[in-house]
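In the laboratory, one determines a bound structure by crystallizing the protein with its ligand and collecting diffraction data. In a computational setting the workflow is compressed into a single prediction: the sequence and the ligand go in, and a structural description comes out. We illustrate the idea with flavin mononucleotide.
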Amino acid sequence: MDLWDAIRNRRSIRAYKPDPLPRDTITRVLEAARLAPSACNKQPWHFFVVLDPAERAALKAAYNQDWFCRAPAIIVACAKPKQAWKRIDDVSYAWVDIAIAFDHLTLAAHAEGLGTCWIGAFKPAEVRRCLNLPDDMEPVAMTPLGIPAEPGNPPQRKPLSEITTWL
Ligand SMILES: Cc1cc2nc3c(=O)[nH]c(=O)nc-3n(C[C@H](O)[C@H](O)[C@H](O)COP(=O)(O)O)c2cc1C
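The predicted complex, in structure-token form:
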């Protein structure tokens, strides 16, 4: 799929078919995240692929939406802040790195004909409990992954003139 096609036509999907996904397809989607750039190439991330129905149901405690755990897979992106590059003022770039990797992942999923929806409004303590996360990992983003059952909403974006300053 053409990159512009993916950028223009990806939508957040909030309804999924239950069909299981081939492992190869999920692996390609993860590969797109793996190839993402990161500050100083630190790659301070870890991705959990939750396929087990009971594990997915348990994650509902972290994000209480049926459509979220009905998808055949949930991907959870965790930062490893201690491994991340830090700016001169000590600000960690872990979340920036995760955001880039996750955007790669969502675009690659779209190119595979799959839907995603970035989930940020989850309860981190519940994700930590469900996945038994070690202390050095911080959950940053989750997404269901599956065949879309609905097309998603039409895009609504601010015009370029409102969000740019040319000097
Ligand atoms: C950082 C981030 C966090 C988000 N968190 C949620 C969320 O918790 N729940 C949800 O339904 N959508 C969430 N979204 C999806 C946004 O609502 C969606 O991207 C936005 O409305 C634009 O729609 P589109 O993705 O279809 O273009 C999130 C998106 C981003 C980038």
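Residues 11-12, 117-121, 152-153, 155 surround flavin mononucleotide (CB under 6 Å). Keep in mind that any predicted model is a hypothesis to be tested, not a measurement.
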